[in-house]
Amino acid sequence: MAASTQNQALNALVFFYQHILRQPLGDLDGFGRAKQPQRLPVVLTRTEVGKLLAHLHGTHELMASMLYGTGMRLMDCIRVRVKDINFAYNQIVVRDGKGQKDRVVPLPQRLVELQQHLGTIKRSHQAELAQGYGTVYILHALARKYPQVPTEWGWQYVFPSPRLSVDPRNGQGGALFNTPLRKG
Fold it and tell me: What is d(CA 179, CA 146) in angstroms, rounded to the nearest whole number?
């Protein structure tokens, strides 16, 4: 039985005796609470990571390299925007990460293909703008205050989806719910 289940059962018995039966349960000093098992994370060796990355190509390889090289979480990587990457300082600003906190992670110098990827995405974004698409999800208050922000290059996702979605708020094509989406 799991430790949390054992502890919940013990707490239920203590509550039952104290508040329902109104009797002392007795001395529980010799009774130890169940402890959660200590779990060690599974960590791949450099060789194993190299073999894994060798099987990936294109955007997936770039994303996996960023995850490995920066220590970012998957959703942090998916939600990173162009303006959050600083090549001059070799860093990425992770916004609204775990615990709703912002943090800065190092950008490995070996990720030079990231600049090439951004060039490709920028050309695609410009083509979408010409077709009347190319917007991304922005918080409502910010989008109302700065109506051009959803189309600006800096606010675009670094890893957009290959599919275009429709924003339910205004019916325009763009990203939906902080998920990068793109016309395929």
Answer: 20
Domain boundary among 79, 110, 141: 110
Residues 149 and 168 in one domain: yes
What domain count does the chain have?
A: 2
User: According to the 3-state scheme, what is the secondary structure of 21-66?
Assistant: CCCCCCCCCCCCCCCCCCCCCCCCCHHHHHHHHHCCCHHHHHHHHH
CATH number of the domain where residue 58 is located = 1.10.443.10
Length, in residues, of the chain: 184
Question: What totals of helices (H) and strands (E) does the chain contain, helices first?
Answer: 6, 5
Do 71 and 102 lie in one domain? The reply is yes
Per-residue pLDDT of the chain (184 residues; tens, 9 = 90+): 788 888 898 889 889 988 999 988 877 777 777 888 888 888 899 999 999 999 999 999 999 999 999 999 999 999 999 999 999 999 999 998 888 899 999 999 888 789 999 999 999 999 988 888 888 888 888 888 998 998 999 999 999 988 777 777 666 665 433 344 444 3
Last residue of one domain, picked from the residues 110, 129, 155: 110
Range of the structural domain that residue 143 is part of: 115-174
Place of tokens 């990355």: 53
Give the SS3 label for residue 25: coil
pTM of the model: 0.71
